[in-house]
Amino acid sequence: MSVPPPPPEITVRDLSKRFGRRRVVDGLSFTVRPGRVTGFLGPNGAGKTTTLRMLLGLVTPTQGSALIGGRRYPDLDSPGRAVGALLEANGFHPGRSGRDHLRTYAGAAGVPDTRVDEVLERVGLAPAARQHVRGYSLGMRQRLGIAAALLADPPVLVCDEPTNGLDPEGIRWLRGLLRERAARGHAVLVSSHLLAEMQQIVDTVVIVDHGRLVYDGEVGAVDSARVRVASLDAAGLRAAVAARAGETATIEHGGDDTLIVSGVGAEQIGRIALSAGIVITQLVTETDDLEALFFRLTESGPPGEPEPAAADRAPAGLVERASR
Predict the structure, then answer these.
(1) For 224-288, which CATH class?
(2) In 7-56, which residue ranges form alpha helices assigned H by DSSP?
(3) Which of 39, 75, 125, 137 is most buried when burial is the number of CB atoms within 10 A of its CB?
(4) Residue 189: pLDDT above 90?
């Protein structure tokens, strides 16, 4: 009995893309590992969609590579069975039913029609399966796009803004779906603007700004408390905290007479200052969540270069063809 190969990982290495003189993606590198949900975040125009399009073979990189299991998407033996992708939930024929739309995908991917009914049930569209897509709401179209991505039960799932059009119940359903895929050992890459929701879903977060990587790490490491302390003797307080707390303390200059201290609580810092006879004028504990980290990393920097206009992008229809 043969053992199935392990799910492939996504590796992006030194990936860059220029459209004319516009640099949209600039030397981007990160890894999406199996068994994890990786959040791909960044402001509008940061290069996220262009990166995903390069990963799926819809845009040719200027430099670098975006590989799935060590191979380019077009070079995979059966791309539609290896990778499920949701980029834009608008590539539907309005005169087709939801079920007929998925049957077209199923035939191209070599998936039996019985699987169509399974995924329609899975995404909550079974009651509307025979309705024309023209009558679907935005949320229903989004669910249909997700159903198409799940048809072949691929070990890699790539979603760009999958929560678009979903109501709160739908977002909760999607959260469970993505976590289930990761629990099965699949690699999941998801881009979204819903930062608070991403913090609940993802294991790892990749943040880009102006096409460049600004953060790549565990989402659990984002929730880190630090203490902002101002005093009449910042240098003396720094020396006192370093002497008493040792290697557990990380001390940074916060401007004027302020220190930013990690690894030591506010109460302990207050006691150290009292023992050293140093007057404290401010003592505040600050916590970074994903949203705070995102804005701290993306609100500054050089003027952004927008992602390409629609005319510069691969036609939306290619998304459908590439997933077959």
Answers:
(1) alpha beta
(2) 48-55
(3) 39
(4) yes
Integer Cα distance of 160 and 163 in angstroms: 9
Q: Minimal CA–CA distance to 201: which of 165, 163, 166?
A: 163
Domains of the chain, by residue range, sit at 10-221+300-322, 224-288
Q: Round to whole Å and give the CA distance between 84 and 76.
A: 13
Please state, as a whole number, how many other Cβ atoms lie within 10 Å of the Cβ of residue 18. 16
Contacts of 1 (CB under 8 A, 6+ apart): none
53: Cβ contacts below 8 Å, ≥ 6 apart? 59, 87, 313, 314
Can you spell out the DSSP letters for 295-322?
Answer: HHHHSSSSPP-PPPPGGGSPPTHHHHHH
- Answer yes or no: are the C-beta atoms of 208 and 43 closer than 8 Å: no
In this prediction, residue 253 carries a pLDDT of 86
Per-residue model confidence as pLDDT tens digits over 42-63: 999 999 999 999 999 999 999 9
Q: How many Cβ atoms sit within 10 Å of the Cβ of residue 62?
A: 15
The token duo for 324 is: 């077959």
Residue 21 tokens read as 């003189």
**CA–CA dist 58, 315 (Å, integer):** 9
Rounded CA separation 265/29 (Å)? 35
- Classify residue 258 as exposed, middle or buried by CB count within 10 Å of its CB (0-12, 13-18, 19+): middle
pLDDT digits (tens, 9 = 90+) for 197-235: 898 899 999 999 999 999 998 887 666 678 899 999 999
Q: How confident is the model at residue 152 (pLDDT cuts 50, 70, 90)?
A: very high
| Entry field: residues in the chain | 324
Name residue 96's amino acid: R
